Amino acid sequence: MAPLTDARPAVHGTVFVPGDTFISHRALVCAALATGTSRLRGIRQSAEVESTARALRAFGANIPPLSDDITIQSDGAASLVSPIDSVDCGESGTTAALIAGVAAGLGLPVLLTGDASLIAGSMRRIAEPLTLLGAEITLAAGDLLPMHVSGRVSRDLDYRCPVRSARVKSAILLAALCARTEVTVREPSRSRDHMERLLAAHGVEVWVNDEAVLLFAEQQVQPLDLVIPGDTSSASCLAALAALAPSGALVIRRVCVNDTRTGFLATLAEMGAEVSLENRELAHGEFVADVRVTGGRALHGVEIPAESISTIIDELPLLAVVAAAAEGATVIRGASALPATQSRRLAVIVSNLRRLGASVEELPDSLTIGGSATPLAGRVITGGDHRIATAFGILGADPRNQIELDDESCVDISWPGFWQTLREVTG
To answer: Are 219 and 205 in contact (CB under 8 A)?
Structure first.
């Protein structure tokens, strides 16, 4: 009798992931505000980042079609003009936040709108600090988009954010930069810091510690010559795939390993995966490294304390599917403190795991996912959420699971080549 074999595909090879989404958004904005020629290589070519490019074009910025290597010639912030029509931010909340900050700082009236998923989210957290800076913000009922930005930022501000938010912080910093005022942004804990790193690497004096960011008045960002590192969240998808594989190793090249973004990789290692960072270096203000993940290790459940959930907030779907395939229970605490958009995403994760047959227990402030080797089967309702689709796509790469997604194409919002990459690394 032939020995039993593991039907799961091994992982192998070396792969690059698309450029980091969060850095791509901010690099486009900074290039439009700088005076001179900027060169951006490796920019994310996705619907989200295209929303920011399209919005900047509406203000008169010379943003070419997105490609692996683009040159942006700008006459600076003073050359931007108020759009003739409303600006559609698509599904990108980051676009809405950054463009609102720029418009408020430059005093360029604009009406921001977006797709149904974006319109459903509150914009109060963006509107409040911009109003305190001197802009005039009008929101639809319920603090929703459309958002009308008028007036102009005219004063300094020391602002304490009620929750950590890289979008809010970036909007405030851009508004102050464009208005040449001074601003301090304080957060309960440090959010993603790509905006301040990018500014500091391109001529803007920014003081940073664990509690606050201070941007001084009368400054201007210099042109960028930037190679955008690989997206951390995309790399985390492939890291999860490799960690769940029965054998093989995967090297994900030139990934952004900013310590505000690597909480999932650290959690994966805590669960028993073999994860290492190689060739780590500082480039244009960001730490970049090759991420190596080796398959064949038994994974086990862990407990995520409430104070750590913010470090894996974008990878919660990934963590959930890995937990469902690990041994023992994984407990995620602090769920009640999640922003509304993430709370909705968590509810979708729970309903889909249950639909597939996984064990999930919900309490008011925690979520427990019981891991099991039992194959999972069923139809995943993505709700058009690209992170849900990619996470359950990783789970579905195990042929023992029979998982169907209602909408595979929604991954194009962030990673149009996701399914092809998945096939390549599993042979």
So the answer is: yes
Closest CA to 192 of 229, 232, 156, 221: 232
Average pLDDT over residues 180-207: 96
**What does residue 191 show for φ and ψ, rounded to 5 degrees?**
-90, 180
Structure tokens at 196: 């301040």
Q: What is the CA radius of gyration of the chain?
A: 22
Q: Which H, E and C letters describe 302-370, residue by residue?
A: CEECHHHHHHHHHHHHHHHHHHHHCECEEEEECHHHCCHHHHHHHHHHHHHHHHHCCEEEEECCEEEEE
Contact 42, 228 (CB under 8 A): yes
Mean pLDDT of the chain: 93
pLDDT on residue 208: 95
Residue-wise pLDDT tens digits, 75-118: 999 999 999 999 999 989 999 999 999 999 999 999 999 988 78
Conformational region of residue 134, where left means phi above 0, alpha means psi within -120 to 50, and beta covers everything else: left
Residue 368 token pair? 């427990």
Chain segment 271-291, per-residue pLDDT in tens: 999 999 999 999 989 999 999
Active-site residue numbers? Answer: 314
Summarised one tens digit per residue, pLDDT across range 169-181 is 999 999 999 999 9
Nearest to 19 by CA among 194, 172, 170: 194
**Which amino acid, 328?**
G
Residue 423: count other Cβ atoms within 10 Å of its Cβ: 11
CA distance linking residue 59 with residue 56, whole number of Å = 5
| Selection from 98, 84, 86 nearest residue 28 by Cα | 98
- What phi and psi values does residue 11 have, to the nearest 5 degrees? -105, 155
Cα separation values, 132 from 77, 141, 147, Å? 22, 20, 16
The pLDDT tens digits for 5-38 are: 456 678 999 999 999 999 999 999 999 999 999 9
Residues 6+ apart with CB under 8 A from 14: 250, 251, 252, 253
Q: Which amino acid is at 375?
A: P
Alpha carbons 327 and 370: distance in angstroms, whole number? 8
Helices (H), 41-80: 47-58
Report strand pairing: 366-370 vs 359-363.
antiparallel
- Cβ neighbour number for residue 19 with a 10 Å cutoff: 27
* CA distances, 25 to each of 40, 44, 51, 93, 150 (Å): 11, 8, 9, 11, 22
